[in-house]
Amino acid sequence: MRELSLLQHIYAANAEMPAAVVIPPGDDMGAVRLSDATLLVTVDQVADGVHFDLACDPLPGIGRKAITRNLSDVAAMAAKPLAAVAAVSLPRDFGQDRAEQLFDVMRRTAAAYNCPLIGGDISIWPGKLLLSVTVFAEPAGVLPVLRSGAKVGDGIYVSGQLGGSLHSGHHLSFEPRLGIARTLGSTPALRPNCMIDLSDGLGCDLPRICQASKVAAIIEAEKLPIRTNCDWKNAVGDGEDYELLFTSDKLTPAPGSIDGVAITRIGEIVPLSHGPVATIRFQDGRVLDLSQHGWEHHS
Questions:
Q1: b vs e for 201-222, b when ≥16 Cβ sit within 10 Å of the residue's Cβ?
Q2: How far apart are CA 11 and CA 227, in angstroms?
Q3: Taking the domains of the chain in order of start, what are their residue ranges?
Q4: Cα separation of 104 and 56, whole Å?
Q5: Distances in whole angstroms, Cα of residue 204 to Cα of each of 130, 189, 240, 285, 292
Q6: Distance between alpha carbon 298 and the CA centroid of its chain, in Å?
């Protein structure tokens, strides 16, 4: 079983969605129309042994990540968070004190981003620690930025640095790019044609933009903003960066930074061909299929 093929099976039923669903499965958030308002929703889970290691990662970082991982999806849509609910499965030997510490961190983190934790569910089970968080958001005057708007000739941009998130601890301490996303989405001269957050790495997430937009992409290896002690493979394949990846035909030249965070042009959107939808090109002339270097859940 592979994550991508399962997602494609899910997306195939999008045409059957009722009219109230204005953003169906396939984007960073879904959305439904409620009277004269739009409500965006995202859900993500963090699991011991997959997204963190309870044996060595600090509990406050784990609780924080459970919230901020979802807020990164909100940023990808240039939306504004409203509230969150959480469903947590605790190991039988977890203990009252650690459970209280975990929930206190989740509550404080959510409140810090104006996204109060308003409810949820708790279970005790024989498995590992599992935290699932659902976040509700609103456009708040900014049209959501989808994955499906990339156009041939767009520059491809990324915020921050890439690679080594798990080894550096960045995956527990990252800042969801909510402010940058709102600036991009609300400023006509900056507004992206499409956007996604880099949770599974450039090698997985850029092809998702290409597939949704029916285009292809070329990344220039030497332009990647690579974190210290990492190489290009880390930058495209490690995942858990939670930076913004977006395309635009307006940013010439690139702004350099927004809110103190670097914005780097790393490639270009090109016409779809019979080859890979996303490739990486090196100065020595090599061109590789980017999707072969991404991170993906599989069994």
A1: bbbbbbbbbbbbbebbbbbebe
A2: 34
A3: 3-138, 155-293
A4: 20
A5: 24, 28, 12, 23, 8
A6: 18
The yes or no reply on domain 155-293 and CATH 3.30.200.20 is no
Instruction: Check if 3-138 and 155-293 are the same fold.
Output: no
CA–CA distance from 84 to each of 46, 71, 112, 280 (Å)? 15, 10, 12, 38
CA–CA separation, 291 and 277 (whole Å): 8
CA distances from 138 to 79, 202, 241, 244 (A): 6, 27, 24, 19
Secondary structure of 53-99 as H, E, C letters: CCCCCCHHHHHHHHHHHHHHHHHHCCCEEEEEEEEEEEECCCCHHHH
Q: 23-35, pLDDT tens digit by residue?
A: 999 999 999 999 9
In 160-255 the beta strands, taken as DSSP E runs, fall at: 194-197, 216-220, 244-248
3-class secondary structure, 209: helix
* Mean of the per-residue pLDDT values of the chain: 94
* Identity of the residue numbered 87: A
Task: Please tell me whether the peptide bond between 271 and the residue prior to it is cis, using omega within 30 degrees of 0.
Answer: no
Q: Which residue has the tokens 């590992």?
A: 128
What would the pLDDT profile of 98-139 be if each residue is shown by its tens digit?
999 999 999 999 999 999 999 999 999 999 999 999 999 999
> Residue 180 and residue 169: Cα distance in Å, rounded?
22
Max CA separation in the chain (angstroms): 58
CATH fold of 3-138: 60s Ribosomal Protein L30; Chain: A; (3.30.1330)
Burial class of 287 by CB neighbour count within 10 A (0 to 12, 13 to 18, 19+):
middle
